[in-house]
Each structure stands twice: as C-alpha cells, then as structure tokens.
Amino acid sequence: MNSDSFIKGRGAQQNTDNKFSAYSYESRDDFLEFCRLEGESADTNKTQYIPIFPKTIVNKVTSTDIGMSYSMNMYQGCEHGCIYCYARNSHEYWGYSAGLDFERKILVKHDAPKLLEAKLKSKSWKACTIVLSGNTDCYQPAEKEFQLTRKCLEVFFKYRHPVGIITKNTLILRDLDILKELNNHGLIGVNISVTSLSEKTRRILEPRTTTIKKRLEAMRVLSSEGIPVNAMLAPIIPGINSHEILNLAKAVSENGAFSMTFTMVRLNGAIGEIFTDWIKKALPDRADKVLHQIQECHGGTLSDSRFGIRGRGEGKIATQIHDMVRLAKHLYFIDKKFPKLNTELHQPFKDGQMKLF
C-alpha cells in the first residue's frame, strides 16, 4: 500500500462523479500547489452531519433477493466506510458522490421516531417485521450523538412491534436493556456482519467499524441473553475472504449465532469504479486477480443486476463458495434455527381502548 496517497480511515479513495449531476469532481494541480504553498490542507477529511426531513421513514422492499419486507434508515450515508457497500449508490439520489461523500456527508433524519410512531399507529398498517439498517448501519458513529436508533427501539417496544437490526458495531450493547425487553415478547432479531477474522483485512475493507473480536463478543453477550443473532458473512469476496468461510462459521457459531447467511460481492453502479481504485491502492499485488475472480462470478462483469443471481453469483468460483457454505452450515448450524418474530401483539397496543367502542 502506498501510504502517501492513501486516505487513512476511509474506504473510498476518491469521489466518483454523480450520474445525476452535470458537475464532476477534479483535483487540479494548480489548486493542490496553492494549498501546499499556503500550508493548507486540500481536504480536511472531516465528517459532516446534515439534517434532512423526509415525510416517511418505512420503506417497502420489493426486491426478491433481499430477505425483508420493510426497512427503515435513520441515517443516509455511513461513516463505517465499507468499500464494497451496495448502499453507496443511493447517495447519488441525494446529490452526493457514492465515494468519499458517502462516508463523510451523513444525512440525519431527526424526525425518524415520530415518523415511525405515525406509521405504527396507522389504521392500515399490519404488523410485519421492520428491519433497521436495510441501507446504512443504524449503529454507525452518528448514533452516539443522535441516539435515533434507541428512540426508535423505544417506539417499537411501546407498540409491541417486531423489529430486526443489521449492524457491525458493538454500540448495539448500549441498548441491551431495551433489546431484552423486546426479546421477552419475541419482538427482536439481530443480524451482525462478520466479514473476516483478520484485523488487517477488516481495517482496509471496513476502516471505521468495530474490531472483529468485539463483534464476536457482542454476539456472545446478546445470545447469552437469549436474543437471537444471525451472523451475516457478507460479502464474500473471492481472493480476499473466500478462504475464511469455514473458520468464520465456526467462530460465529461458538459465539452464539443462531444461524448464518452470506452473499457474494457485487459492484454495481459507481461501486465498481470505487472498488477498483481502492484495491489498486490498498492491495496492488492482488488487484487484478481479485477483480477477475469477481467478474467470473457475474458473467464477466463487476456490475450484475440479475435478480436471483446477483447475490449468489455463478460459475466455478461461486459454486465452490456455495459448497463451502453448505458444509459450514452442516458442521456448525445443523441443530440451530433463527426464530420467527411475534406479530400478534401489535394490534391491541395500536388500538388501545378504542376497540371497546
């Protein structure tokens, strides 16, 4: 890795052009030279929190490849900086780049708890698990300051409504008290992402995430309280973490995971350019090999949008990975099962005493 040109603490190493914008990013040599002469930094690399005020917060998921019906996100953009993140492309809809902007311009939905409560009280709404972090991590660093995830969990408990969580941050343990209350009624399921057992790999793939050791500890704490945890081995990237599948499965099982799932990496939209630029800087000796193996899993391209195939991959490499996952499940999860969440309690709590009249 060329440390002189690598932006430490970030995944993306550039701001790609926004396909919806007429403007493009360019670092001109004359500007960089001016900054050098003035002793100024051309890029402060600071994170900005930008308030936004959407009218709704719960999104219906129509993709057949995603195992959820509804999701909600308190934050858009994610400071974790995972280089492979599929959510990067969504930042372009807000007028920003999928590259560094995604990690440094975090949009904060301050009204999220109020909007959620309005949704759960709606006469037309019928209880169905809503997953937090369908797009970006609800326990990313912004949550320390704004606590929107905790406030939303309190709303879910108030109305006895089932909720799922996807995260790779141990900040989730801050809310163990409300998670235990939800679990007493079968209303919570947690998905923890574990991409590698190597800290070196974790640091370059997911620069601002919790360490692997702490993620496994969080899994163990949650499961010891009876809270169901699914381990997400996602994404599997050929040539980077594909050789770790059995060891990953063993580790998460030993730390209490009820089940495990996986997806193949895919680099749609701007992510292909961002990932390619990153790997040539972070892992130059492996860059071409990894990119070619990803292409082999997606019909010769980094960008795969085929429903039913894009998350699974195809070809010899994908088949080998699927075989390894099946073996891992047989070895470490044969007697385990993730429970179905309770949808029967919500209606009385939504209606209150009105049903008497």
UniProtKB/TrEMBL annotation:
Protein name listed in UniProt: DNA repair photolyase
InterPro entries: Elp3/MiaA/NifB-like_rSAM (IPR006638), MJ0683-like (IPR040086), rSAM (IPR007197), rSAM_sf (IPR058240)
Alphabetized SMART domains for the sequence: Elp3
Keyword match Iron-sulfur: yes
Coiled-coil regions, chain positions: none
GO molecular function: iron-sulfur cluster binding; lyase activity; metal ion binding
Domain Radical SAM core: 64-301
Keyword Cell membrane: no
Keyword terms: Iron, Iron-sulfur, Lyase, Metal-binding
Organism: Maribacter arcticus
